[in-house]
Amino acid sequence: MPQRPSGPVGLYDPSYEHDACGVAMVAKLDGKPSHETVERAIVALENLEHRGAAGADPNTGDGAGILLQMPDEFIRGVIDAELPPPGAYGVCVCFLPREEERRVELEQLLEDTVRAEGQRVVGWRDVPVDKDYVGITANLYAPYIKHLVVAASDELSTDQDAFERKLYVIRRVAEIAAGPELVVPSFSSRTIVYKGMLTSPQVLGYFPDLADPRTKSAMALVHSRFSTNTFPSWELAHPYRMIAHNGEINTLRGNVNWMRARESQLASELFGDDLQKVLPIVRPGGSDSATFDNVLELLVLAGRSLPHAVMMMIPEAYQDRDDLPEDLLGFYAFHSCLMEPWDGPAAVAFTDGRVIGATLDRNGLRPGRWLETEDGWVVLGSEAGVMDEPAANVKRKGRLQPGKLFLVDLERGLIVDDGDVKREVAGAKPYKQWFDEGIVHLADLPPAPPLPKPEEPLHERQRAFGFTQEDLRVLLAPTAAKAEEPIGSMGNDAALAVLSDREPSLFSYFKQLFAQVTNPPIDSTREAIVMSYGTGVGSERNLLDETSEHAHQLAMQTPILFDRELQQLRHVDSSIFKAHTVDITWPIAEGPEGMVTALERACKEADEALVRGVNILILSDRAVSPERAPIPALLAVAGVHHHLVREGTRLQTGLVLESGEPREVHHFATLIGYGASAINPYLMFESLETLVAEGRVPGVTDFETAQWNVVKGIAKGLLKTISKMGISTIQSYNGAQIFEAVGLAPDLISKYFVGTASRIGGIDAGILARETLDRHARGFGLHSSDDLLPVGGVYAWRREGEHHMWNPETIALLQHSVRHGGQPTYDEYSKLVNEDAARRATLRGLLKFRELPEDQWLDIDDVEPASEIVKRFVTGAMSLGSISRETHETLAIAMNRLGGKSNTGEGGEDPVRFKPDPNGDRRRSAIKQVASGRFGVNINYLVNADELQIKMAQGAKPGEGGQLPGHKVDRYIGSIRFTTPGVGLISPPPHHDIYSIEDLKQLIYDLRCANPGARISVKLVSEVGVGTVAAGVAKANADHVLIAGHDGGTGASPLSSIQAAGIPWEIGLAETQQTLVLNDLRSRIWVQTDGQLKTGRDVVVAALLGADECGFSTAPLIATGCIMMRACHLNTCPVGIATQDPELRKRFKGQPEHVVNFFFFVAEEARELMRRLGISKYEDLVGRVDLLEADGAIEHWKGRGVDLTHVLAAPPVTDDAPRRRLRPQDSPLPGALDWTLIEAAKDAIDHRMPITGSFDVRNVNRTVGGLLSSAVTKVHGAAGLPPGTIRYTLHGSAGQSFGAWLAPGVELSLFGDANDYTGKGLSGGVLSVRPPEGATFKAEENVLIGNTVLYGATGGRAFFRGLAGERFAVRNSGASAVVEGVGDHGAEYMTGGRVVILGRTGRNFAAGMSGGVAYVLDEDGTFEQRCNMGLVGFDAISEADAIELHGLIEEHGERTGSAVAARVLDDWAEYLPRFKKVMPHDYKRALAELEAEEQRGIEPAESTGGEGFVTTERSA
């Protein structure tokens, strides 16, 4: 395996690697160092092994390590020199090169630096390692590990903090001088780190030091890493110097940029002149965790306590909270003026050797469980059960909570409560007073005079800024009417911006990045409590100091400013704030060259303004006129932002934009992402005023309302955009540059958009200026004199509009070919698509094949037959619900006839389709999709699949969930999705059981248990870094990965997502192929691609770039009759495809034959190309990029700048390296506990005989009951076994997904505790969990089960005697459950079933809950404050409810021995009135309507098309 590249190779870039992991800590409360601490920590580490990973070499891990207090006795025993007392010497752990000459140089450098800084070198020691313990790859790249012992100078020997600072300075000076060859895992007088490219069980064996009984510590931090890539990297193993991190920092690029900008202002009394020596603070090339560690270390060494620094960097969600103390709110608000949050899902364990603790991100997206024992041990881990502890010795159990600190103070010998830590930190200085006195709200500024009306007519200025009729009609008017972004459907088949002749704006070249697999997107609507779009402008001060002046910021509610607010800002003049306006237009007389000159002038003017003390810069293009053209707003903002960052002055000012250009969500997102704090879109508001005056905004007659609606709609859209990346606050998104450019030249990027990926080259500043001048000329009458705006035609085909590949001509030809025209008409269609449509719109249109000379072409009969090639084709995931039953089944029949595969989509499948039809046709979809909503997913569905596809993202709206409006949920759809007819359905943006790569590994394992014979697929969407995610997917044991293009279809999506997220599949597929081949993972995984595939040529290009299989969605729909009306989301499809309306469905005329014909035509075209290439079998096409080249004949004036070198790069590997899948993955199922359970249940499964059994369970036993349920369902179908047929009792800590998919007739009773995802997909079985026998703690006060329990459960019952974590019963659609307290977001997205909570809930209960009922025991009357009342109300408890509730609590008591159940039942009359019945409004209405229908005698099986069930989504 090659060494980890230091820079990009082809499309692979190491900076996009991700990691996730298991983390644990062990501490002894008495603070006495012992070797037992080390032994316990190693046991915990080994029990986390399944959370780590190995790559192509199974004995080389992704990384594991341990951090300890300085083992003084051991160090004295192994160093042959006199050592000063503990605390007056430090140990530098060095990873040095193996090459002796360079190693000696670096050792000398370290010694010289120690002496130069006035400290004393005591001596060196070679750290013994046992190479037999590790893999070939790890050994090949293992560093030479040495310890350098340094003694403090007399001056520092009594001041350990000062000595720690000096050791930090020595390390940084040496690192900067040595470059990347010197790696120092730790250099401290308090702590020491042992780590490497190891698996968890190898750590102890590799480092004999750890087995030495003199190695003693009172605490230990351990970590097991799962990286998406397998390139050897010893440095990237954790722990780092202060932290071990399980998670992902989504805002990293912005955090690093801002940190760099802050360096010019840093000053510290404690560091003095030494501070300049350590810059830059962030070591280049580090991971997100390493970077976080760099900054945390500086904050602590410069004088803040460790908890203080952690609270600054990972603040909890504090805005609009009334349950936090005033001082703490003041602390967070004050620190928001110093630093933006490091945002993303994270569990961070931290220590400085004196305290050890952990914290969780604001949304609680990582697991963490802790316990304290009677004999004074504290253990925290990513799972419960990392250490076996006798029940009687357990004092209490808990979990990490969102935004909360867990802290063990070893000097004081106690666990410090979150509230106490924060009270101490927040009360140290008058932060609240400083903030209240320093902050100025925009609304409080004095009114300013309005601007004079512009002289030029509105339509001229609109045209000059590129406005179209579509912008006004499709985007602006609907947003002004409804205060939300408009929805569209079908995919984006328009030309890429770099190939468009319609002068698209610069915004169109940028594509939003989004979270997939390695971190989750957030639901910005249902989880609004963690979101914030507040922003501010002003200057920042020295980060290492805290004074009242630090709070001088001008705060704004949203980043979008009305005209009057911008005027207030422009005229602000006080001792604190001073504004200056910089013109960003240029005289057209200067031609295209004038644009760059004008931008340079603007940067110079900004510099001069800052010297005068200006701290609000307003970039304005209001001076646009017939003589002056505007610099593209994004170029101006990014250009000035990066110029000021380079100058070191960026934090002295806020950047505000006043521009006529921005008018849609994506425009605002890019401007904020590249540094603008606030934006005044004056021309958008002026256009809106005219629309209102002309009566073109439905239901809105006054401009003020329309204006507020637009701001609200765009602000909501912005939150949705940032949440796609898992970011919660606009403050963190600002300057974070979370975009990829498609079609911009390298020099444009390196100057104005530093750090943004742009991998295919493209247009330069000259072409950008030329297009701007063309627009300007069109606007001011030089090309056109009429008042009409251009039509646009971006969102739908228009005759004079943007080029679309699906247009009346291509649609008509395709439909004619599959019905009557045959191959000749298809050939006409494919010629039109290949030579015109695709060439003008796609990257593959810029490629050509390296064909053989005609006399060397193969005979067509020697080429693999079409009947074999079509088996590699699949249809896309279109859910039953988004399309009609007729369409869904037609596609399935066609694909089964071909031997290809159809995909259920995320709406489940009718079990009657699992059996063949009388004529032999099969309507069963081979691919069953598992998406975030889990609709229709139960054990029976999973067992009846050839492939199970985990949908991580969708090309048309990656990072977002889905929504099926209530009018599409008729009785039939509702029955298949296990939901209520007429009630709208929400698919969450994330899978709530996939917050990281190791979670995906767990779901893959769960699905393998549900159906051991199915291949497991993961669907990703093309974006920069998708190759590294695909490598992680391969390491997580998936069999198949799908790379979807940005242009795929959708039944409903916000318009900005269809246009602005994701990139072409050609880039994503090529990156995936290159990365998998480089990592030696390609041989074990199938790769598929999809996204606007239309012809055999598309298929061959995809194969050459690395696709084993190809997916088609829009084309087969068009073959069956779709005419691209783009009305799928309205239920009004005129051809009966995308509708549930029974009358419209009668119009569906599609036949399976149409689809079969289409695919055979495609395969025949592919065969013709294969023979010209000299390739006889499809499998030999895969990965042969050498058969592709850029087409020199293409003379598109913009396309000429496109450079596809990286897309066509062959990875630098040996010729025999596998380019396609050659072997299956290793099964993780042997050794599963379930095989024992199945063996014991043979009589029950074969003869339905009742059986019982008792077994021990550990946290490494995952998905207990999954394989058993699969075995039961294969024999007995959905009905399973009679209740109680299989009854098993288990003892211990169960691993993740305990009781997943549990089938009817199976009961599991656990004495112990369980982890995350307990009861996932519960399908009719019964679960109970209670504390172990002999436990002395109060169950109702201790955490018993993990997060995301009963996710997607469809039936059965569950009883938990104790507390649950976050997201209990998320998306429950049929199970009944009782629990004694839950964390945040309980009953989220629930659509059915019953939940009883016999204790407190966390915040945001019932968010997105649209069905089912929850009963909450509200003893102190405060539940309403924690319940999200957006979709639900509190109903009176009827007599029938009371009987149901009593029965569930009674069963809870019987199954778990619950003391709470006993107390409630003993005093039933007293307790019943304290229960709140949580009832969704929509559900209540739908139930009433269904009851009325039944009374009228409407047949339940009859599809009503959802008539009468119209629902609007409320913010929830």
UniProtKB/TrEMBL annotation:
SUPFAM superfamilies from the UniProt entry: Alpha subunit of glutamate synthase, C-terminal domain, FMN-linked oxidoreductases, N-terminal nucleophile aminohydrolases (Ntn hydrolases)
Superkingdom classification of source: Bacteria
Entry keywords, A to Z: 3Fe-4S, Amino-acid biosynthesis, FAD, Flavoprotein, FMN, Glutamate biosynthesis, Glutamine amidotransferase, Iron, Iron-sulfur, Metal-binding, Oxidoreductase
- GO molecular-function terms, A-Z: 3 iron, 4 sulfur cluster binding; glutamate synthase (NADPH) activity; metal ion binding
Question: What does the record give as EC number?
Answer: 1.4.1.13
Which pathway features in its UniProt record?
Answer: Amino-acid biosynthesis
Q: Which GO terms describe its biological process?
A: ammonia assimilation cycle; glutamate biosynthetic process
Report the InterPro entries cross-referenced here. Answer: Aldolase_TIM (IPR013785), ET-N_metabolism_enzyme (IPR050711), GATase_2_dom (IPR017932), Glu_synth_asu_C (IPR002489), Glu_synth_asu_C_sf (IPR036485), Glu_synth_centr_N (IPR006982), Glu_synthdom (IPR002932), Ntn_hydrolases_N (IPR029055)
Report the coiled-coil segments: none
Q: Which cofactor does it need?
A: FAD; FMN; [3Fe-4S] cluster
* Pfam families cross-referenced by the UniProt entry: GATase_2, Glu_syn_central, Glu_synthase, GXGXG
Where do the segments described as Disordered lie? 898-923, 1493-1516
- What positions does the domain Glutamine amidotransferase type-2 occupy? 21-411
- Basic and acidic residues compositional bias, start-end: 910-923
What does the similarity note say?
Belongs to the glutamate synthase family.
Q: Which NCBIfam families match?
A: PRK11750.1
Q: What is this protein called?
A: Glutamate synthase large subunit
Species, as recorded: Solirubrobacter ginsenosidimutans
The organism's lineage?
Bacteria, Bacillati, Actinomycetota, Thermoleophilia, Solirubrobacterales
